[in-house]
Amino acid sequence: MAVDNKKYFIDLGGMEDIISTSLRGAQILNHPHLNKSTAFTQEERDFLGLNGLLPVHISPIEEQLKRCYQNFSRRRTPLGKYTFLTSLLNCNEHLFYQFIAHHPSEMLPYIYTPTVGEAAIQFSNITSDHRGLYLSYFLEEKMEEMIDNIPQNELDVIVVTDGERILGLGDLGIGGMTIPIGKLSLYTLFGGIHPNRTLPILLDMGTNNEQLLQNDLYLGWRHRRIQGHEFDRFIDRFIFAIKKRYPKVLLQWEDFGRDNARRLLDTYRSKILSFNDDIQGTASVALAATLAALKETKQKLKDQKIAILGAGSAGTGIADLLVQAMVSQGLTKEEARHRIYLVDVNGLIHFNTKGVYESQRPYMQPHSHLKDWGAINFDHITIEEVVTNAHPSILIGVSAQHGAFNKELISELARHTHRPIIFPLSNPTSKAEATPQELIEWTEGKAIIATGSPFLPVDYQGKTYKIAQCNNVYIFPGVGLGAIAAKASQITDGMFLEAAETLASLSPALSNPTAGLFPEIEEVSKISRQIAIAVAKKACAEKVSTVPLSEIEREVDSHIWEPRYPKFVNSL
User: What residues are labeled active site?
Assistant: First the structure.
């Protein structure tokens, strides 16, 4: 790898472990991908001009990892641990990724959910290093200039948000940058995407969060959120500029508001290689958990009724992929859609519901399906009434309503199915519809559970139940890696269906009923590779790939980067 001395970026023409650069001294130490800190050898210190800039002791990676863990452990709060890890990432990328790889299950809650939510809330108060690109509507006329300021000449993955709907926390404005930064660290950790080929982007369109607007430390544009034509014009200009400079880049949409998330996906998925993780990634991991649970109980998806609390982009995305999976098992689309009950804040989506979004329209339950439900108020059919009358066997929550799955509701659900499948998926933990402990107790140990946030195992009547975290990290790194390796022109719904089926086939619960539905986090890198190969092959089958099927596995492996210190050679 060579370094452009004028712009100070790494030109990753290959994945070699030898670097030749004309950078010297502090320029090396201030570059997170070049910095090895105290691990530089004496020979490297001599020709790189590092003598005197580092302590004399040469500390190998093993010592650095030990030191990191000691410092990490001294942080007493989740936010303190998050800021320590963020500082390490901004200082020494190789050390950061090696450290996380040594402790993945322990570190994941601090580099992503749930701690990333608190970090987003506190972003303007705690941030000191600025990673990524901030594109403000205030500077719209400088869009092309800002895109040209990106130091990398080549990119594989961009994750972009406008901060309007961060997890279940709402509009956090510029604080939403923690989401792209966190997601891209997981792309590298589990998908092997080289960190210098990734870029987090925050589209600063203002904020409607009064607390942020009144905060004198807020770092974003202090203005009400831009909407309508102005919003669309800005997005279109952004996509055009990004596509012009990086025509093959994968763009992942993150945490856009309800009015925009699906609309942007539908508008741009055929114009730039892209997907929305909140819609498609969440749907894929939820489907994988569902398929794994049904494999455990030896049932078929096409025979189930499913209630989904939360009919926004995540809820409708899950419903759409469930329909595709049911169709693959022999149902028509209409039959499959009628087996899904979408419940929004205004109740069940049905024939008489007012103000239905286009994405919800296919799931409007007809009058013929509800006429025998007894005395109900058609202006607001509650989730309790849906469970009592429709008798679903699967209950999914993406409502961000803490406690929405109460004892009465779950007890009623369990009355009509021997092994209820219950997924409270809302993030962060404070927004979960129920806790696994509650669900296990209320169903007398019969429920099959996956959650959106991490939870400890549950002990009940002499058994220990591991709780799977229905985390998108099981899906999106593999999907992204597969799309990049396949040189895909588009990411199809079929590719997400393939990812879900691949993940479901790896479920530990198939051989142990008390095991979690998903493998341990330590296995995600291997799983991502398997998903990437399956997704890339699906891209070939759907004719959106230019790579021959016989070369798919080699292409996937060629894109996987491992965090190990390079050797510097004298360029003079």
Answer: 112, 183
User: How far is Cα 16 from Cα 13, in angstroms, rounded to an integer?
Assistant: 9
CA-closest candidate to residue 565, choices 118, 211, 64, 87 = 64
What's the CA gap between 462 and 177, in Å, rounded? 44
Which element (helix H / strand E) includes 27? helix 26-29
- pTM, whole model, 2 decimals? 0.93
| pLDDT tens by residue, 374-409 | 878 888 999 999 999 999 999 999 999 999 999 999
* pLDDT tens digits for range 129-169: 788 999 999 999 999 999 999 999 999 999 999 999 998 89
The HSE-up count of residue 125 (CA atoms within 13 Å, CB side) is 11
DSSP 465-523: E--EE--GGGTHHHHHHHHHHTT-S---HHHHHHHHHHHHTT-GGGT-TTS-SS--GGG
Which H/E stretch holds residue 111? helix 104-111
Q: Are 401 and 168 in contact (CB under 8 A)?
A: no
Give the span between the Cα atoms of 13 and 154, in whole angstroms: 9
Kind plus residue range of the DSSP H or E element containing 80: helix 78-91
**Closest to 203 in 3D by CA, of 134, 276, 121:** 134
